[in-house]
Design goal:
By secondary structure, the protein is α/β, with parallel strands linked by helices. 17% of the residues lie in helices and 31% in strands.
């Protein structure tokens, strides 16, 4: 028997009050819908359809080739959204699981479990339910005296007694595919909301079909995200899960509630992460590294025993035993060699440094390649931009760049060069040279008094 999934993601998500459609909103930098589709891909499901409508292009680009798309031009409710899959799905035979695009914590094991439960029980419709201590906002499960499900009533349609029911509709349903499309047309519009509720299929189907429930005891994986507060709750759950995974693998995380690690980050054991640190994108942190506090690392590789504190590292690589920070900014393909020291308001962009290179204070290194053991004095700058184009600076091995030096690119500096402090260097410097490019100092004897007014005049 074939297994299908339908994911409803056509809604705007009015309660989010964001520009992006709700199901595309990122949680730990990954769009909500991705979580659902990834778990479907890991499950027993053979084919999936995603119902899209509001800003559909976003989902088409995101999920191209992974799901089929059904279009709901006007968002007239969850029942109406499933109707939009009719042409694609109604002729197919098999079992269909319906999922909502706003349940990012869903797990493929739940999908597998409820689908096999549905088939084993011989149900025609299985509604997945759970209990919440505070069920506000969810549809309530109404049961009869035999504990059989009778109906689902939306929070705003509940009377006071129904509002006290803690068992809720998770929004996951398993249904025999051919039966689904026979009953959908019978859903009537909900006058209060002007929508066709999918939840109505319970009352419709229970007359002629076997309708059952699957009660999930762990409610954490099925929370519905409807507003930015629930985004933060879902994010917290995911963050804790990822941090726990790394901690159990030998990563020491100090104050883990302040540390955010993305899904695609690899961290080796014997790494320490200090508070207020974000590591995202496909980043790799190698053993012995110490990262944070107050640090952001995105799509970067941090090699063995590197220290990065109070700094930003984006799209860059830092080789072993180097110290970055405090307050450094590496970006656009910066590749820092071994045993470097880059800190205290130093920016490195699209540049490669050799081993043992130092830029410890107030420097800008852009579009530059250095050899080994180069010392950038405080305030040195590679002047890479002439207002129109970017130019390269090439620096050899064992070069000393005095404080407040400007290296006006394009420029080449040979090995073993010494540049006097305060130089503005516009010509290449050959190997072994001392370069001085500044005005000579003049000391005028006894002259200072002409500029110093007596105390009384002030
Ligand atoms: C829904 C259920 C509720 C359940 C809760 C679980 C209904 C009527 N209510 O309520 O019983 O407890 O989920 O989280 O089904 N969507 C469309 N097209 C539409 C409307 C919605 O595709 O016309 C999509 C949305 O993009 C969203 C999903 O369906 O991903 C659920 O819609 P939402 O508005 O969040 O429903 P809830 O009010 O949370
Ligand atoms: Mg919802």
């Amino acid at each position: 028997m074939k297994k299908f999934a339908i994911v409803l993601a056509a809604g705007k998500g009015t309660r989010m009050k964001t520009e992006l459609p709700k199901c595309a909103f990122p949680i730990l930098k990954k769009p909500m819908i991705e979580y659902i589709v990834e778990n479907i891909e890991k499950s027993v499901v053979d084919e999936s359809v995603c119902v899209i409508g509001y800003q559909k292009e976003i989902f088409e680009n995101m999920l191209e080739g992974r799901v089929e798309f059904a279009y709901q031009e006007q968002q007239l409710g969850t029942g109406h959204a499933v109707m939009a899959t009719k042409d694609l799905m109604a002729h197919k035979r098999g079992t269909t699981i319906i999922l909502l695009g706003d349940m990012p914590l869903i797990d493929h094991k739940i999908i597998n479990k409820v689908m096999s439960y549905h088939c084993d029980r011989g149900n025609d419709l299985t509604v997945v339910t759970t209990e919440f201590e505070n069920p506000k906002g969810y549809g309530r499960i109404i049961r009869n005296e035999y504990r059989n499900i009778e109906a689902i009533v939306e929070h705003n349609d509940c009377n006071d007694e129904q509002k006290r029911i803690k068992e809720i509709n998770t929004g996951i349903y398993v249904v025999n595919n051919s039966d689904l499309y026979k009953v959908l047309d019978s859903i009537k519009i909900n006058e209060r909301k002007g929508e066709y509720y999918l939840t109505d299929i319970v009352e419709i189907m229970k007359k002629d079909y076997i309708v059952g429930t699957f009660v999930l005891w762990d409610n954490t994986k099925v929370m519905g995200v409807n507003d930015l507060f629930s985004v933060s709750v879902a994010e917290k759950v995911l963050r804790e899960k990822i941090n726990m995974f790394h901690m159990l693998n030998g990563v020491s995380i100090i104050n883990p509630e302040t540390v955010t690690i993305g899904h695609d980050v690899q961290i080796e054991s014997n790494v320490t992460i200090y508070p207020n640190t974000y590591i995202t994108g496909p980043s790799i942190i190698k053993t012995g590294a110490k990262v944070g506090p107050n640090t952001e690392i995105h799509t970067s590789t941090i090699h063995e025993n590197v220290k990065v504190k109070h700094s930003l590292v984006h799209d860059s690589e830092v080789h072993a035993n180097t110290v970055i920070g405090p307050f450094a900014h590496l970006r656009n393909g910066a590749s820092i060699g071994e045993y470097n020291r880059i800190g205290n308001f130093v920016e490195v962009k699209n540049s490669k440094t050799g081993n043992g290179t130092k830029a410890a204070h107030l420097a800008y290194i852009g579009d530059t390649e250095t050899g080994n053991n180069v010392n950038f004095g405080c305030g040195s700058i590679t002047v890479n931009y002439d207002g129109v184009k970017k130019h390269k600076t090439m620096i050899g091995n064992d070069v000393f760049i005095g404080c407040n030096t400007n290296l006006v690119a394009p420029i080449e500096v040979g090995d073993n060069v010494f540049i006097a402090a305060g130089s503005t260097v516009t010509k290449n410097i050959p190997k072994g040279a001392l370069a001085i490019a500044r005005n000579k100092q003049i000391n005028k004897a006894d002259y200072a008094k002409n500029f110093i007014r007596p105390k009384d005049d002030q």
